[in-house]
């Protein structure tokens, strides 16, 4: 009896000690994520060891409008963490013998252009295809990242690209396009939507009941978080309307991702051989490893939706995700069967700066301190050189056929700006001879090119599309001459010469589409009366834009019915070298 009492006392003491240790552990983690607690967009956290979740908790709010807290079943968009699921689905199809990583992508997506070198499925997964990035292309084409963007729109745009960023298989350059195309291949081979294939072959077997690929932005997602960014001290909602999957658009929870992590060690989906191949790094066509990035300490390698490297002596497989205000990181330490998962709806969440310290709380006995390169590079004290660019020489309209879009470059208050019908003005900053920088959702570099000492176009490059060529649109001399003849006859009150510049089917509108009259007889009656009553009539064109067969004039008219003057915009649409339609926009005083 005495020994039994002692045993019971020992168990009680051990349980108390365990509870104290657990409480101390939670206090440490709470301190690490303290800035995301309270009335702020926050983060969900999970720690997995040996297939079991040993810690999970939510911090902050999933919805700031309704004060809904984040918990471990809150669903987040995990951005590019989606890619490892897309790659895994490709490996499952290969295991079934339905595809091969060596297959030509055109076998499944024949609408793609035929390039000089075959693009294989393995190139898509390794970011070595050379394909221009879909987000890079869309933003250059005048899209906003909060537009509704579908798989079909991306496929159409990519199918128009005549060139690659580089020769396939020779370089690494991150391209979301590759993973969107991988999803298309899965759809066409399986006969199911990509979302359905993943649901049936990955999520359901792993009992990831709160996970789905979001292929319709109208779908309802239970317990979802909305994403936010702090602007001038206040949180603003960041909207996503993607209906495209493969590269992104996975919604999931930390609880479900813990099940995904466990599958790498005790596979229910796939098998040990498949997972071993999946975790291996990718290679270029010359058999050199695909390097994601160089650091002073080591190279980071790419491995099909994951980065492979070491952290303080332990091998790591990790990837982050970032769309709208969502930020996600899934970091695995495979030899320790350990992982940390953090999912956030806060644009300012500091991802790796939280994930590593979180891992160190649990792995401190296995980590080795590494020496950091503290050498400092000499600052560049080179003075900025003055550039001899004649800014007015760059003015004009520039068009790219692959993007089916155009920009106007003009001088505005001494600053060169690019304008697009759907975008805010983009200021250009000089960086060298004919070279400029700007920002259009993403930072870009722009270089004008010349022929016969005249600007003929520009090349523009951002993170995922290199040297996109825009050619300067040349005015049609005949049509501009016709407008000038019309203007001269107008100022001279010469009704016959004035009418001669118009097409027989002439139509006059008040902008945008209020028809004022049609035909030359309508013009004769209208303008003959105006000419007789306005002996001092004079029209001056203050600026002109020529867009193919459309000419837009800013006009100042004086002596209009006495001493009246007005400013107007006249839009002339030409047909057979004559004016066929006119739209007037009177500027309000």
Q: What report would you give on this structure?
A:
By secondary structure, the protein is α+β, with helices and mostly antiparallel strands. It is built from 13 helices and 32 strands. The strands form seven sheets. The protein has a nine-stranded antiparallel beta sheet with strand order 21-20-19-18-26-25-24-23-22.
Protein traits:
8-stranded antiparallel β-sheet; single chain; alpha+beta; 589 residues; elongated; 33% strand; 27% helix; 9-stranded antiparallel β-sheet; 32 strands
List the topology elements.
Blueprint: H1 2-32, E1 43-49, E2 52-59, E3 61-63, E4 68-69, E5 76-77, H2 83-95, H3 121-126, H4 134-140, E6 149-150, H5 151-159, H6 176-190, H7 194-203, E7 212-213, E8 227-231, E9 234-238, E10 242-243, E11 250-252, H8 254-263, H9 272-279, E12 291-294, E13 299-302, E14 307-311, E15 314-323, E16 326-333, E17 338-344, H10 351-363, E18 396-400, E19 405-412, E20 415-420, E21 423-427, E22 429-432, E23 435-440, E24 442-451, E25 454-461, E26 468-472, H11 477-491, H12 495-500, E27 502-510, E28 514-518, H13 520-533, E29 538-547, E30 550-560, E31 564-575, E32 578-586
Parallel strand pairs: 6-10, 27-32
Antiparallel strand pairs: 1-2, 1-17, 3-4, 5-11, 7-11, 8-9, 12-13, 13-14, 14-15, 15-16, 16-17, 18-19, 18-26, 19-20, 20-21, 22-23, 23-24, 24-25, 25-26, 27-28, 29-30, 30-31, 31-32
Helix pairs in contact: 1-10, 2-6, 2-7, 5-6
């Amino acid at each position: 009896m005495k020994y039994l009492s002692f045993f019971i006392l020992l168990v009680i003491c051990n349980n108390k000690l365990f509870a104290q240790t657990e409480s101390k552990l939670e206090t440490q983690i709470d301190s690490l994520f303290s800035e995301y607690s309270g009335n702020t967009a926050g983060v969900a956290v999970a720690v997995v060891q040996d297939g079991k979740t040993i810690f999970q908790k939510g911090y902050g709010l999933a919805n700031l409008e309704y004060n809904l807290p984040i918990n471990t079943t809150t669903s987040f968009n995990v951005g590019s963490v989606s890619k490892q699921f897309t790659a895994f689905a490709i490996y499952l199809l290969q295991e079934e013998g339905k595809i091969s990583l060596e297959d030509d992508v055109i076998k499944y997506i024949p609408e793609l252009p035929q390039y000089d070198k075959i693009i294989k499925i393995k190139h898509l997964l390794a970011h070595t295809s050379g394909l221009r990035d879909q987000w890079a292309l869309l933003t250059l084409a005048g899209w906003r990242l909060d537009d509704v963007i579908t798989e079909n729109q991306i496929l159409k745009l990519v199918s128009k690209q005549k060139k690659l960023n580089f020769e396939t298989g020779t370089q690494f350059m991150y391209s979301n396009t590759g993973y969107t195309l991988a999803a298309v291949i899965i759809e066409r081979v399986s006969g199911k939507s990509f979302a359905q294939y993943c649901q049936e072959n990955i999520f359901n077997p792993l009992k990831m009941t709160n996970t789905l690929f979001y292929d319709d932005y109208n779908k309802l997602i239970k317990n979802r978080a909305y994403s936010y960014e702090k602007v001038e001290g206040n949180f603003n909602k960041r909207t996503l309307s993607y209906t495209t999957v493969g590269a992104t658009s996975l919604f999931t929870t930390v609880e479900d991702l813990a099940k995904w992590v466990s599958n790498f060690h005790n596979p229910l989906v796939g098998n040990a051989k498949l997972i071993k191949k999946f975790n291996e790094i990718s290679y270029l066509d010359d058999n050199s490893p695909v390097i994601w990035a160089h650091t002073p300490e080591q190279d980071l390698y790419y491995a099909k939706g994951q980065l492979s490297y070491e952290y303080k002596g332990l091998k790591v497989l990790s990837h982050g995700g970032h769309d709208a205000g969502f930020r996600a990181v899934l970091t695995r330490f495979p030899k320790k069967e350990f992982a940390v998962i953090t999912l956030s709806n806060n644009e300012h969440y500091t991802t790796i700066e939280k994930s590593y310290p979180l891992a160190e709380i649990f792995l401190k006995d296995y980590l080795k301190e590494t020496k950091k390169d503290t050498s400092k590079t000499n600052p560049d004290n080179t003075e900025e050189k003055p550039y001899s660019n004649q800014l007015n020489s760059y003015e004009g309209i520039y068009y790219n056929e692959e993007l089916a879009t155009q920009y106007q470059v003009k001088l505005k208050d001494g600053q060169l700006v690019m304008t697009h019908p759907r975008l805010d003005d983009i200021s250009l900053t000089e960086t060298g001879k004919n070279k400029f920088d700007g920002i259009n959702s993403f930072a870009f570099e722009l270089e004008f090119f010349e022929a016969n000492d005249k600007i003929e176009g520009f090349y523009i490059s951002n993170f995922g599309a290199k040297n996109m060529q825009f050619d300067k649109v040349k005015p049609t001399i005949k049509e501009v001459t016709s407008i000038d003849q019309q203007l001269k006859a107008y100022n001279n009150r010469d009704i016959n010469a004035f009418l001669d510049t118009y097409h027989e089917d002439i139509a006059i509108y008040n902008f945008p589409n209020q028809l004022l009259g049609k035909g030359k007889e309508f013009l004769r009656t209208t303008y003959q009366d105006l000419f007789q009553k306005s002996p001092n009539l004079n029209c001056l064109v203050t600026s002109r834009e020529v867009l193919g067969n459309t000419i837009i004039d800013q006009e100042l008219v004086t002596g209009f019915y006495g001493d009246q003057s007005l400013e107007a915009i006249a839009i002339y649409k030409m047909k057979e070298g004559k004016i066929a339609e006119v739209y007037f926009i009177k500027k309000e005083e």
